[in-house]
Amino acid sequence: MEKLTVVGSGTMGRGIAYVAAIGGFQVSLNDVNQENLDRAKLYLETEMTKSADKGFLTREQASVALKRIEYTTSLEKAAGDTDVVIEAVFELMELKVDIFKKLDKICPEHTILATNTSTMSPTEIAAQTSRPEKCIAMHFFNPVHKMKLIEIVRGLETSDETMTKAKEIGKKLGKETVEVNEFPGFVTSRMNCLIGNEAMNLLMEGVASAEDIDKSMKLGLNHPMGPLALADLVGLDTRLRNMEYLYKTLGEKYRPCPLLIKYVKAGRLGRKSGQGFYTYES
């Protein structure tokens, strides 16, 4: 497999494009919005330069990797001759299904279609295509170029061959992989959403400040980042969509904290809006 297409140039999409280019893939980064692509290109150029400055890459490696990436608003151009597509758009089932239907018509027969969903059903998405055996979930973590894991989630019809190829892709991207049988939230999102939601309840109830809740988890339980700071990084709107899906599929223990709902209604979405549980400089 030589060409990899990423659909969606937001935080996760551009991160996947970064590691794919470093891993040797010819990368096509697709988005419906040219301004999003322009921002992604600036981000990738900046991050590659920082990595070279810090010695994680040579300047030649960074230069070659950047040349491997093309940017396009045309899904046909991005995916018409690709070997694998990784969809990285919002956690909305209708949107993902629509994209997979289009990809199924555009892509060659051998192309693997992967979704970067953190909670949703790859079986449901795959059922809308004529190639469910070639559909799978590959759940990356933010920031993609630093986090070592990909959760690879097998749908009901996913073939052994597709699972094997997904693991090979993960290895080429420099990642460790775990194989997960589909269930809402998989492994990490189920655990992470519970911890984060309880941290929000603690804050709402006045048990401790955001800073002290996060400090307790970092120093007391050895978490690398506090759950409230992590929710701000992920995006509180994204976290709320995840919680709503898990609440719908798994029940009461995943009911979103009222404080999370209030923050999203107020536009306090975390780092990307400048304010969430913490305030961030622009």
TrEMBL record:
Boundaries of every 3-hydroxyacyl-CoA dehydrogenase NAD binding domain copy: 3-182
3-hydroxyacyl-CoA dehydrogenase C-terminal domain ranges (all copies): 185-280
Gene3D superfamilies xref list: N-(1-d-carboxylethyl)-l-norvaline Dehydrogenase, domain 2, NAD(P)-binding Rossmann-like Domain
Segments passing through the bilayer: none
Pathway as given in its UniProt record: Lipid metabolism; butanoate metabolism
Keywords per UniProt: NAD, Oxidoreductase
InterPro entries named in the record: 3-OHacyl-CoA_DH, 3-OHacyl-CoA_DH_NAD-bd, 3HC_DH_C, 6-PGluconate_DH-like_C_sf, 6PGD_dom2, NAD(P)-bd_dom_sf
Binding residue positions for NAD(+): G8, S9, G10, T11, M12, G13, D31, E91, K96, S118, N142, K272
Protein family membership: Belongs to the 3-hydroxyacyl-CoA dehydrogenase family.
GO molecular function per UniProt: NAD+ binding; oxidoreductase activity, acting on the CH-OH group of donors, NAD or NADP as acceptor
UniProt site positions, description: Important for catalytic activity: H139
GO BP terms: fatty acid metabolic process
Highest rank taxon of the organism: Bacteria
Name listed for the protein in its UniProt record: 3-hydroxyacyl-CoA dehydrogenase
Keyword NAD listed: yes
Organism this protein belongs to: Bacillus salipaludis
Pfam family, one: 3HCDH
